Amino acid sequence: MSDLHAPFLPPEPAKGLTAPVLELIDVTRAYAQGEGMLEIFKGLDLTVERGEIVGLVGQSGAGKSTLLHIAGLLDTPTSGEVRICGRMASGLPDADRTEIRLGELGFVYQFHHLLPEFSALENVSMPRRIAGEPRQAAEAEARRLLDLMGLAARATHRPGQLSGGEQQRVAIARALANRPKLLLADEPTGNLDTRSSAWVFDALVGLVRGEGVGALIATHNLDLAKRMDRVVLLHEGRLAEAARRPAAAQAQSSG
User: Fold this and answer.
1) What is the pTM of this model?
2) Among the four given CATH numbers 1.20.140.10, 3.40.630.30, 3.40.50.2000, 3.40.50.300, the one describing domain 19-115+179-254
């Protein structure tokens, strides 16, 4: 029944007050293929501001997941720079990149990847426990996030006792448990029906707005993409801005 309760959507935070949470600068990614190179994309530039939700669309195989992996420091560009919160990150040693991922980035995937033997509360509190926070404090933050996602009454339920939409909302709460600056989501509603997709997307937007997080969300769902601040299209190795909400455009011009 918790799926019937839409989360509160806070107002959009002001942009342009801090360094962008994500900057891709002249990024190229190519892979060796036989005696040549297979170029996935070339010379990409993309900026995501704090509190901004950017949609990433494109055909299957266009390289959206590869782009998210590079933005999330899970892959390294062939050339170009990746900056997280103003810090050049793409050329750092693995240990430093891991530190940035743990402290600054949150990830949501098409499948929730919750640990089945743990409750929703335990799944969401786990990142903070791994970071060394005492159990009581970690669980207090997890309860706050679950409450914001409309799942306070489901905190003690294990993933197998939750609906698909509830599972994905728990995954979103877990992704934001360490209070990252940037959320990267790869088809977060791809496994859900239309109704559940809408509820999960509303929950994601509400939490991202409320926490002041920047977000880059890859999706095939154009109806959901239209509700983001900006939409960029990845096509034939290039990025182009496909749409911008009027409110977002006005904020950009006045910032």
Assistant:
1) 0.82
2) 3.40.50.300
